[in-house]
Structure formats: C-alpha cells, structure tokens
Design brief:
It is built from 12 helices and 18 strands. By secondary structure, it is of the alpha/beta class. The structure holds N-carbamoyl-L-aspartate.
C-alpha cells in the first residue's frame, strides 16, 4: 500500500508535484463548478485552533465544489480541547470514521507534524504558529506562476514582519527551491529568524549577500535592512546572484507584503506603536517596481493602503480567489483522485527518535513542549559531521553539546570526526558534557582539546 502522504511543510512536495498541482488548478479554474464528481462523498474535517477566514472557507468551498462534505470545528476552544483533551487524541478520533482528510490550524509550531503522527488520514497544515503555512505558499506560487509564466529567476521582495509570518517562511523555502531571488525588506526588528536563514543557506543553497535598495525608493527607506553585514547577520537582505556579488536591485517582479503578527508578540505589544511599513501609490512609484505585482496573504491592516486597490499591480484579492482552485487540486491529490505525486517520494531529512532522557526542543511555542505525553523527542539530522540537528516538529535548531553513542557508552564532541562512525540510531543528544556524564557516558578516547571546547552558540 502506498505510504500515507501529509502536507506539513512545503518541503513535503517536490517541485514537479507542485507544478502538477498548478496545472490542475489552472484547468479547474476554467470551470470551477464542473468538478463535483471528482471527490464525491469525501469528508474534510477543518480543525481550527486559531482564527481564520480565507484558509478555512476556501478549503470548505473547495471540498464542496469537488462534491464532498465538510465537518468543521472552527473554534476549537469550544471543543474538548477546553476540557484538556490533547491534540493527539482529538486527531485520532476525527481521523477515524469521521473524515477522510484533516485540515489543521494551531498556534503551536510543529502541531501539524504531531497530528500527522497520529492521524489515519492525510493531514494538511493550515498554519502552525509562526512556523509554516504550506497551502498559502501554493496559492502564492500559483499566483506568481500565472502572472509571470515561470518562477525561476524572479526577484521577489519579502516585506513586513518576516520574523513571525509563517506564510513568509514557507514561501521563502519554496522560492529558493524554484530558483527565485529573495530580497528581504523587513520591518525593523522583524528580520527572518536565524533558523530560517540557516535552512535557506544550508538546505536550499541560498547565499545571503549584500544588496543595495537604492533603486527601490521608499520601499527600502530603512536601508540598513537591505544590506547584509557579517557582524550582524540577522539584519539581512538575501539577494542571490550568480556571481555572488553585491549589487543594486534593478528590477523587481513581485512585492509580498505581510501584516505585523501582533498576536505572536510575547509581550502583547504592537507594531503600530512604532512606524510600520506602508505600501501605497508613492512607495510603488520607483522605476524598479513598475512591473512588480503586489501580493499579500491577507488579512491586511494598514500595511497596504486602500488607495492602492485600484492599481492593476495589486493582485491580493485575485491571489485569495485563486485559493479555491489550488485547494481543489490539492484536496483531489491528497484524496487520491488525481495523480500528481512522484512515484518515488523524495527522501526528507533523516529523522531520529530520541529517548526520554535526551535534550528537548528549547522553543517554548513548539508543540513538543505542550503535548508532553504524545510528542517524542524527535530530531532532523541536518549534518552528521559536524553534528547539526533541528527539532523535527518546529524546525528550530537544537544546540547539542555532547553526542553519546549508546553502543560504546562514550560521548563525542559535536564537531568530532569520529561521529562518522556513529549511526544515527545509536546516538544520544545532550546539552553538555555534564549531562552526558551524569547519564553514564564516558569521554571517547583521543578527544582533542578543540573537541572539548563548548560549541559556539546559535545566533
Ligand atoms: C495568514 C496566516 O494565517 O498566517 N493568513 C492566511 O492564511 N491567509 C497571514 C496572516 O494572518 O497575516
């Protein structure tokens, strides 16, 4: 039997699979009402632990246009979650005889990954905290693809709250994989998180380099944000260039604006108190932006002024409308009604399950911190030598200070070449040497002074 597929991260789809979904979406959009035979009788459950308008309604509309039905828990705070039910238990129940597919939105990062571990049907991530929002990305890529005919080589400005916008994170990963260039113009203090930049560099081969926003006019008026300074790599602009050189950004194909994600600010503070970026007719007057489409996942507040709505470059409402055919194609694929999946699904990064005594993800908003009974310690191995690991739920990098080998009961430094000989299933990860030794591991023989040095902190 074919392996059950889920859409938790945009990485779960190959480029060919995404393109097949775009082609199907385009075909569907030619006659939206002509597909009611395709998924007749299928039931989608929409479980939303956070507010939503477009995502939930477009999934529900898409299911119904395909001839299926919907059961919805639009406000999971009114469900058994308020009685203390775990996400894992809810998912086990709803994915039994209730529904053929789950669409989940949740405030904790990694929630969809956990749900996929417990579900007997495909799980689609409709947003997990500030981590990912892969179906929005499909809608966004599809919109760019319809507007420009291709994705490779496009120069796309990512603007606004790049730190907490999950739509930005999934979009940036996918754009990088399709060979598009990213020009980051964050709201001051809301740069891409270091773990996202690291993934872009190490997994997707994007080089952050210095770029000049001189030609971008007011859009880049806080010009420090379009330069990468090696001392402060978190204040970055990403601009991939074949020669790897700093250069002026001459011509932009799309500006993707985002809302300040105030609900995710720990202090409950708001970005409105400081001057927030605003895009309008004046900002878009720069020569380099004359053909740039303006996109936004919506809802918007003031970051795109209403006077821009009549400008033909503003495609954000079209972008939202395209969510229905894209999600119809996606649902049909995950319900097994159209054939878009590669015969050999690509291998995701190796995942290793840890034991109870090992290092847990430090990120407070990670689902593994709240679903303690149901979430294993689970790591993605980014690299074995030197050892680099990320949480398999929320993708955050985990700083490992010592790596035990359960067979020899010896610990190694994370940068030790000897780790080549330790198979992932034998490994045990600890915060530091003391933890490893407290758990009975001895220093591996031949440890050099350099290997005894503590690993540098992650930025
Ligand atoms: C986005 C989200 O929920 O992340 N909305 C959406 O799904 N279209 C963007 C946002 O809320 O700012």
């Amino acid at each position: 039997m074919a392996e059950l597929r889920h859409l938790v991260s945009i990485d779960d789809l190959s480029l060919a699979e995404m393109e097949a979904i775009f082609l199907k979406a385009r075909e569907i959009s030619e006659d939206l009402t002509g597909w009611s035979h395709l998924c007749q009788g299928a039931i989608t459950a929409t479980l939303f632990y956070e507010p939503s308008t477009r995502t939930r309604l477009s999934f529900e509309s898409a299911t119904q246009r395909l001839g299926g039905g919907v059961i919805t828990a639009a406000d999971m705070r009114n469900s058994s979650a308020s009685k203390g039910e775990s996400l894992a238990d809810t998912v086990r129940v709803v994915s039994s005889s209730y529904a053929d597919l789950l669409v989940l939105r949740h405030p904790s990062e990694g929630a969809a990954r956990l749900a996929a571990d417990y579900a007997g049907v495909p799980v689609i991530n409709a947003g997990d905290g500030s981590h990912e929002h892969p179906t929005q990305t499909l809608c966004d890529l599809y919109s760019l693809w319809v507007e420009h005919g291709h994705l490779e080589g496009l120069d796309v400005v990512l603007a606004g709250d790049l730190r907490y916008s999950r739509t930005i994170h999934s979009f940036a990963y996918a754009l990088a994989r399709f060979g598009a260039n990213l020009v980051c113009i964050p709201q001051h203090g809301f740069e891409l998180p270091p773990y996202v930049v690291k993934r872009l560099r190490e997994e997707f081969g994007v080089e952050p380099i210095r770029a000049s926003g001189r030609r971008l006019g007011d859009l880049a008026k806080s010009s420090d944000v379009v330069y990468l300074t090696p001392q402060k790599p978190h204040q970055l602009s990403l601009f991939t260039d074949a020669k790897g050189k700093a250069q002026d950004i001459q011509h932009v194909h799309a500006v993707y604006m985002t809302r300040p994600q105030t609900e995710r600010y720990a202090s409950g503070g708001s970005a409105e108190s400081e001057e927030y970026m605003q895009l309008g007719k004046n900002t878009m007057a720069a020569e380099s932006l004359k053909d740039a489409v303006v996109m936004h996942p919506l809802p918007r507040r003031d970051e795109i002024s209403a006077d821009f709505d009549s400008d033909p470059r503003g495609i954000y409402f079209k972008q939202a409308a395209r969510g229905v055919p894209v999600r119809m194609a996606l649902l049909a694929a995950f319900l097994g009604k159209i054939d878009v999946f590669d015969a050999e699904p690509k291998l995701a990064l190796e995942v290793r399950r840890g034991e109870k005594d090992e290092l847990r993800c430090p990120k407070e908003s990670c689902i593994s911190r709240t679903e303690l009974r149901h979430a294993d310690t689970k790591y993605k191995l980014i690299s074995r030598v030197p050892l680099q690991v990320a949480c398999a739920y929320c993708s955050h990098e985990i700083q490992v200070g010592a790596v035990g080998c359960r067979t020899t009961q010896e610990w190694h430094a994370p940068n030790s070449p000897q780790l080549k000989k330790v198979r992932p299933e034998e490994m045990a990860f600890f915060a530091d040497v003391k933890e490893a030794e407290d758990r009975g591991f001895q220093a591996a023989p031949g440890l050099s002074e350099a290997e005894r040095e503590p690993a540098p902190p992650v930025l």
